[in-house]
Design a protein that fits this description.
This protein has helices spanning 4-10, 25-37, 48-57, 74-83, 101-109, 122-164, 168-214, 217-248, 251-255, 258-273, 290-311, 340-347, 356-366, 397-400; strands at 17-21, 41-45, 62-66, 92-96, 114-117, 276-282, 315-323, 326-333, 370-375, 381-388. By secondary structure, it is an alpha/beta fold. A five-stranded parallel beta sheet has the order 2-1-3-4-5, with helices on both faces. α4 links the parallel β3 (62-66) and β4 (92-96). The chain is elongated and about 75 Å long. Mean pLDDT is 78; it is low at 348-354 and 392-401.
Length: 401
């Protein structure tokens, strides 16, 4: 058990706040006194319904959640927390007297990151809390670095736009270089996540499994469950790292090319957002230039992300075809659609406003391509994009260099 001095150095200065949900007053009293001794701010409630209300108005850093409660039980409470974008990232640790594997699996399925069994062991509760606070802090730090990287690139791009003014050809060349630099940075970070952190987590999981096999039988029975929980937590963290790496830049795009990378992305996208996706590529058996492959992948990624966020679609089709000296990309969904003229008038898509569609249009323009959008309220949306087979901006490098 860490001393108060050792613990204070890392956690007391962070002002962490923990919500304890338990219908047993004795449990609440014990946990509050113990955690406040270590500098945690604590709040408590005795029902799932009240917990949801309190989290909505004042989100805690972590939730200790009893499973067996009258009214809304812990499983349903956790399920509702994870269904909300505002509360889905708050770690939930179940407190339960249920010891069956089925109950534990159900807890992880509804979104809990861990569990402690009753009667509660104070030191174990503290250890679980500190582990998941460290994990959440590391994840938030990584996400912050990624956001800072994106913000820095946006600011740099804005300064370049102002600097070059009406020199449109030079602007296009400089903007293309900036996009390439951004991709290289994201590629480097994705590699570090995939190769270093990902491999380290994989090694940890393998080593834990090996340790379990080598334990004497009398120790294995006692420690097997704890080792399995740790392996599961390691695998969950590895999956998060892989997702971050994929969002930054898929390794497959560089190693295998556009079509395999899009096929893999579409598969993960359909699984994540529950939208049926039909993907077809015609005449793209040979590799394209790195600039064109990157642009086409990002165009598809940004367009499909836009569909998931705004279209309320049930299915989407992604179609790519090489036609002589151009590549045609069609992204069509069966979503709610919109008034294109109104969007252009208020968001200035044609002249430099908007977000998701603007990102697609910018990439198409950089490659000297054509962008067209057709949509009708209630009848879906269709993006048609044509870009040259080879990157025309290759000849512009001398202008910006």
């Amino acid at each position: 058990m860490p001393t108060e001095t050792e613990f204070a150095a890392e956690f007391k200065s962070q002002n962490y706040n923990i919500l304890i949900v338990d219908d047993t007053p004795a449990n609440l009293k014990m946990l509050v006194e113990y955690l406040e001794h270590y500098g945690f701010g604590t709040r408590m409630t005795r029902s799932g319904e009240n917990a949801l209300q309190r989290v909505r108005y004042d989100p805690p850093d972590l939730i200790l959640l009893d499973v067996l409660m009258p009214g809304l039980d812990g499983f349903e409470t956790c399920l509702r927390l994870k269904a909300s974008e505002e509360t889905r990232d708050i770690p939930v640790i179940f407190m339960t007297a249920l010891a069956s594997t089925e109950d534990k699996v159900k807890g992880f399925e509804v979104g809990a990151v861990d569990y402690v069994t009753k009667p509660l062991n104070q030191e174990e509760v503290l250890a679980r809390i500190t582990t998941h606070l460290r994990h959440r802090e590391a994840t938030q730090s990584l996400e912050e670095k990624i956001n800072q990287l994106a913000l820095g690139n946006q600011m740099e791009k804005a300064r370049l736009l102002e600097a070059v003014g009406e020199q449109r050809e030079q602007l296009r060349a400089l903007n293309n270089r900036l996009t390439t630099l951004q991709e290289e940075r994201q590629k480097q970070l994705a590699r570090e996540l995939h190769d270093e952190l990902g491999q380290a987590l994989t090694a940890i999981s393998i080593n834990l499994a090996a340790i379990e096999e080598e334990l004497p039988l009398e120790c294995r029975a006692r420690l097997s469950e704890r080792l399995q929980d740790t392996i599961l937590l390691t695998d969950q963290t590895l999956e998060q790292v892989r997702k971050l790496s994929l969002d930054l830049r898929p390794i497959m795009l560089d190693e295998l090319g556009l079509v395999p990378a899009l096929r893999s992305f579409v598969k993960q996208y359909a699984k994540r957002v529950k939208i049926k996706v039909r993907f077809e590529a015609v005449g793209l058996e040979q590799r394209l230039s790195p600039e064109v492959e990157t642009a086409l992948f990002r165009i598809a990624q940004e367009a499909l992300t836009n569909v998931a966020r705004h279209a309320q679609a049930g299915r989407v089709q992604l179609y790519l075809q090489r036609k002589e000296d151009t590549i045609v990309t069609i992204i069509e969904d069966n979503g709610q659609g919109f008034d294109v003229a109104n969007l252009i008038r208020h968001s200035h898509i044609a002249s430099g406003g908007g977000t998701g569609l603007l990102g697609v249009q910018e990439r198409v323009t950089l490659l000297g391509g054509h962008f067209d959008i057709q949509s009708t309220p209630g009848q879906g949306t269709c993006l048609t994009i044509e870009i040259p087979y080879e990157n025309k901006n290759e000849s512009d490098k001398s202008i910006a260099g």
